[in-house]
Amino acid sequence: MRKIIAIGECVLDILFDGDVPRASLPGGLILNVAANLGRIGREVSFVGEAARDRVGDMIIDSLKSSRVSVDHIDRYTEGVTPSSFIFRESDGMPQIVRYGRYNNDSFDVVWPRIDKDDILIFGGFYAIDPRVRPHLFEIVKHASERKAIILYVPGFAPEKEPRITRVMPAILENFEIADVVITRNRDLNTIFRTPDDAAAYKNHISFYAHDFINIDRDNARLRYYHDKEMVETGVEMGDNRFAWSVGAITGVIDAMIKNDITRFTLSGEGEAVMHTLTQLAQETGQPVAQLLSQLEGKHGMLNERISRETMMAVIDEASEMAAKASRTFDGLLPIKES
Prior knowledge:
Helix 4 links the parallel strand 9 (149-153) and strand 10 (180-184). The radius of gyration is 21 Å and the shape is globular. It has helices at residues 29-39, 54-65, 133-145, 164-177, 185-192, 197-203, 241-258, 263-267, 269-284, 288-293, 308-326, and strands spanning 3-7, 11-17, 20-27, 43-51, 68-76, 80-88, 94-101, 119-123, 149-153, 180-184, 211-216, 221-226, 229-234. Helix 1 (29-39) packs across helix 7 and helix 7 packs antiparallel against helix 11. By secondary structure, the chain is an alpha/beta fold.
């Protein structure tokens, strides 16, 4: 079974109505995607940090209840697991007040086993935070060398780094190593100063990653770009906008496994090799079939590429899971019985 490795932050969100706390639940986009993937039966490991305190225990227990492996979470002793107090403003936008303290030995995690065509997802401010990034990015590079599929979700709250130029080199390095980039409109606005996903792909992202999926909450749609192809679908949206994004990303990853999308499929290497063989056949006068026979039976792989039908299958499942998750209070999907 293909494995999923999610690298992200452990944080407890405390939601307020006015000045009265209403609920607390594990927060963070990557963590909640990992929880949902575990709940629908995927093999998931979460890589992150949590203090050996009560808040850390709550987050660990929540992940375990969602069938996510917590063997790769660093339980540090000198510090406090982060909490975010989330207040809703009159315009519906959240005001976030954050508390927490990490120890000095950052991200001292046990590396997970990563194999070919496993899927690693990372992102948020955690992926560009100078405190964490040197250790985190070593795991990402290792996954890439092992030929796992790398998904990068660059979104983070602008107030965490108001000067985007300071972190842009790290963001671009993350783009470069990623096989698939997944954004929301506000992420594009934060990074590229435009919510236009087509322009962001053409002018920026396509130079680094061929595959780009934008989760457009403003227009309730998903778009998938791959080279010169683009497909889109509308999405039903419930009241929980954060859960809508969590569900969409969960659906993307689940659909990639269901549709047997591999790193080779995404890379387009097969198509490139076939083009080279065709040119070589013309230059040498040898039949393409004869050249193919020298590839030890691997010629079937050379036609592999991601089709429009597969792209639509990915965003159709993402749409379905986004709608389901957005109708829940906590964004979590029902646990699939074995």
